[in-house]
Amino acid sequence: METFFTILFNGISLSSILLLASLGLSITFGLMRVINMAHGEFIMIGAYTTYLVQNFFIRFLPKAAFDLYYPIAIVLSFCVAALFGMLLERLVIKRLYGRETDSLLATWGVSLFLQQLARSVFGAPNVNVSAPSILNGNLEIAGVVMTYKRIFIIVLVALCLAFMYILMYRTPYGKKVRATMQNRSMAQCLGIRTNRIDTLTFAIGSGLAGIAGCALCLLGSVGSTLGQNYIVDTFMVVVLGGVGRLAGSIAGALLIGMSNAAIQFGTSANIAKALVLFLVIMFLQKKPQGLFTIHTRSLDEGTGESLGSALNEKRKNIAFALTVFIIALLPLFLSPFRVTLVGKFITYAIVALSLDLIWGYTGILSLGHGVFFGLGGYGIGMYLKLLASGSSLPDFMSWSGRTTLPWFWDFYKTAPTAFFMILAVPSLLAFALGLLTFTNRIKGVYFSILSQALALVFVTLFIGLQQYTGGTNGITDFSTIFGLPIASMKTKYLWYYVALIVLILTYALFSLVLRTRCGKVLVAIRDGENRTRFSGYQVANYKTFVYCLSALFSGIAGALFVPFSGIISPSEMSISNSIDMAIWVAVGGRGNLIGAVIGAFLVNITKTLISESFPEIWSYFIGAIFVLVVLFLPRGLTGVFADLKDLAGRKRLLGLAQ
Question: Residue 426's closest CA among 576, 259, 557?
Answer without folding.
Answer: 557
